[in-house]
Amino acid sequence: MAAKRGTKTSMKNMEKELLCPVCQEMYKQPLVLPCTHNVCQACAREVLGQQGYIGHCGDPSSEPTSPASTPSTRSPRLSRRTLPKPDRLDRLLKSGFGTYPGRKRGALHPQVIMFPCPACQGDVELGERGLAGLFRNLTLERVVERYRQSVSVGGAILCQLCKPPPLEATKGCTECRATFCNECFKLFHPWGTQKAQHEPTLPTLSFRPKGLMCPDHKEEVTHYCKTCQRLVCQLCRVRRTHGGHKITPVLSAYQALKDKLTKSLTYILGNQDTVQTQICELEETKRASLLQAIEECQQERLARLSAQIQEHRSLLDGSGLVGYAQEVLKETDQPCFVQAAKQLHNRIARATEALQTFRPAASSSFRHCQLDVGREMKLLTELNFLQVPEAPVIDTQRTFAYDQIFLCWRLPPHSPPAWHYTIEFRRTDVPAQPGPARWQRREEVRGTSALLENPDTGSVYVLRVRGCNKAGYGEYSEDVHLHTPPAPVLHFFLDGRWGTSRERLAISKDQRAVRSVPGLPLLLAAERLLTGCHLSVDVVLGDVAVTQGRSYWACAVDPASYLVKVGVGLESKLQESFQGAPDVISPRYDPDSGHDSGAEDATVEASPPFAFLTIGMGKILLGSGASSNAGLTGRDGPAASCTVPLPPRLGICLDYERGRVSFLDAVSFRGLLECPLDCSGPVCPAFCFIGGGAVQLQEPVGTKPERKVTIGGFAKLD
């Protein structure tokens, strides 16, 4: 009984938050103005009518009718209002002319409707559609309904279908938009009919739509525009109005606002003693002010102190603003919560700031003196108060996943500084678990880059980051998705000791880049173009051989390269083929097979010892079959092959046990080619050059590991 009495007292103290500023009655179908204040729909129409606007008060047919809008339950002031006749409104709307001020007949530009907000005393721009472009505050309607039920405002709700005298209603029906007693509900929802599928609700005087709808497109809202601070639907997202705006799913906005509101409300509820102490101090200051105040300022001081006391009383548990916030937190409809919590959080934040920086609004003493505070006022106006950092911007050009994940970001140009950052990441390719998504977190990251070690191979990660300073945590960055390689990354260096034509191969000092410079044989070949030419193949191998498992590595090929072949091969076959390789005839020579045409015909079923991808002049040559052991022309001629553009990086994935090699686009991990390979011995990476060309191995993200070298089937460490 005591708990029930306390709940009614708390709801009673909250009544001030539920009164319309125009009619001073409980809200009925409240609309949210652009200034975030609320007003009854009927009151808003009345105010616009008094301003002379006709045809911009919203479409009455778009609002659902309910028992709350019947003449018996409407406010007395509404019955005295003289509304224009419907036929006159239709003629005005169809003709495009109205009698409101400032509109000229035949005007080229549509008029912008201004609404005088009764709460902030400012003129609010409603746009061209007027009230039709505003959202209904469904959360506020639910709070009003719970308040009415808790304190029994207006008496019991009666059945609308009973014969006089009607019985008390026990059920409501959203589909029928009416309230019923038990007998009438059964009578109007007979078993076996479509109406029997209607789901009963609690009796109510206001039937609301099931979800929050976009006033522009009549579609359910699914996203929140942070730039406009407005809920939008799918159609709004693709319109030019929100082009380039920061739009997030309504679930993200719902969770962020709910966390902020809960945190602020927890702080206020945890400092109830401080609130009560400050109220007592204000009461004492008020009494002292009554004794010492000057007659001219007495009423002003009393009003200021009373308003401050009322403001602090609303911070007590279950009272006023706090009680209303507690009721809003019960809202489960995400778009409705975002709509209501956005304006409520601003008020809670101001109340929290007033609690932290408490000072009585008036003093009990008067000291008549003059003080020049011009210098201090100038300093105050130049103060820049610390704010939370803005959402970081992830540098997608420098962020990538290889052996580890490297994440790089920066703050916007005019953002407040961040002391440290928090990184959150999770896999998106695992089965979804019930409840909210679980993020892994790294706290207090210094700098603007971070290394995430040991990611799972063949996975997709989503990452985000936010900054923090003394003012608190800022907004999260946009999510970035990264694909990890399909197999463990193989670390190796280029070995110039193996291969041919070393005088034309320039290997970098870190042994991760190689360039082939055309020499004299290419010039002589150009001179003997009509009689047949001889070109040399420049070959360089990796210093690591694979003997088991799956391995992956990536490289970048210079788009200006004349002809480059990237791939793998049996270590023994590579050494046999290229230690004393003769010059070959171009363009019919194929360095992939190492056999003549007849030998290839005889062993067509055997897996080849080499597998190469051919790149030339910014293109990749793909054969018609699954094997890459086709020459530049092949038996079927050039028509049997096709070319695709060269990606920024190429990936090679070797499955030793299966004897398969896959060539991938290392940026999107799109497959380019898959072919068989003879894995009867150690297999190592190889690169072939005909003419000029260059290859750069992708740098590992982590530290350099020990270099394992396999030569002639024996492994050793450098």
Concise structural overview:
InterPro entries: B30.2/SPRY, B30.2/SPRY_sf, ConA-like_dom_sf, COS_domain, E3_ligase_FN3/SPRY, FN3_dom, FN3_sf, Ig-like_fold. The chain is an alpha+beta fold and 718 residues long.
Describe the protein in words.
- The chain is an alpha+beta fold.
- The protein contains 16 helices and 37 strands.
- The strands form ten sheets. It has a seven-stranded antiparallel β-sheet with strand order 20-24-34-26-28-29-30. A seven-stranded antiparallel β-sheet has the order 21-22-35-25-31-32-33, with no helix packed on it.
- Strand 28 and strand 29 (619-622) form a beta hairpin.
- It is elongated, with a radius of gyration of 38 Å.
- Residues 59-108, 528-534, 580-604, 625-639 and 704-718 have low confidence and may be disordered.
Number of helices: 16
The geometry reads as elongated
Helical proportion? 25-40%
Range of strand content: 15-25%
* Largest sheet features: 7 strands, antiparallel
Estimated structural class: alpha+beta
Give the end-to-end Cα distance, rounded to a whole number of Å: 83 Å
Topology (elements, then pairings):
Layout: H1 2-13, E1 30-32, E2 38-40, H2 41-50, H3 76-79, H4 86-95, E3 113-116, E4 123-127, H5 138-151, E5 171-173, E6 178-180, H6 182-188, E7 200-201, E8 223-225, E9 230-232, H7 234-238, E10 247-249, H8 250-269, H9 272-292, H10 295-313, H11 320-328, H12 334-356, H13 374-381, E11 393-394, E12 400-401, E13 405-410, E14 420-427, E15 440-445, E16 449-452, E17 460-469, E18 472-473, E19 480-483, E20 494-500, E21 505-507, E22 513-516, H14 520-527, E23 534-535, E24 538-542, E25 550-557, E26 563-570, H15 571-578, E27 584-585, H16 597-602, E28 610-616, E29 619-622, E30 642-645, E31 650-655, E32 660-665, E33 671-676, E34 683-690, E35 693-697, E36 708-711, E37 714-717
Antiparallel strand pairs: 1-2, 3-4, 5-6, 5-7, 8-9, 8-10, 11-13, 12-13, 13-16, 14-15, 14-17, 17-18, 17-19, 20-24, 21-22, 22-35, 23-27, 24-34, 25-31, 25-35, 26-28, 26-34, 28-29, 29-30, 31-32, 32-33, 36-37
Helix pairs in contact: 8-12, 9-10, 11-12
